[in-house]
Amino acid sequence: MGLRRRPGARPIKLSGSQDKVWFLALHVPEPWQWPVIVVMVAIGLAGFWAAYQVYRAEKSRQPVPEPGQS
After folding, report:
1. Which of 33-69 are b and which e, b meaning 16 or more Cβ less than 10 Å from the residue's Cβ?
2. 40 domain residue, yes or no
3. Euclidean distance between CA atoms 33 and 22, whole angstroms
4. What is the pLDDT of residue 1?
5. Residue 37 included in any domain
6. How many domains does the chain fold into?
7. Domain membership flag for residue 36
8. CB neighbours (10 Å) of residue 28?
9. pLDDT at position 44, please?
10. What is the per-residue pLDDT across 27-65, written as a single tens digit (0 to 9) for each?
């Protein structure tokens, strides 16, 4: 038996598969599937952007000690 590999989200939707697996967009009515996909991608990109902004803010806040100073 073994575990079955699950394909990524794009091949699931574009292949026309009717199997409702882990991908949220396949659990909504057909006219809403692509808008849900777009919103999910936008949320993911916004999360990466927010994490990068936090990283930049923290990096600029912490002074880097010069060599030879304690």
Report:
1. beebbeeeeeeeeeeeeeeeeeeeeeeeeeeeeeeee
2. yes
3. 14
4. 44
5. yes
6. 1
7. yes
8. 12
9. 95
10. 888 899 889 989 999 999 999 999 999 999 988 876 767
d(CA 10, CA 37): 9
Tokens of 47: 């999360």
- Show the tokens assigned to 42: 């936008």
Is there a domain that residue 69 lies in? no
Residue 48: which H helix or E strand, with range? helix 30-61
pLDDT-derived band at 3, boundaries 50, 70, 90: very low
Whether 13 and 23 have beta carbons less than 8 Å apart is answered as yes
Predicted pLDDT of residue 17: 60
- Domain hosting residue 50, numbered range: 28-60
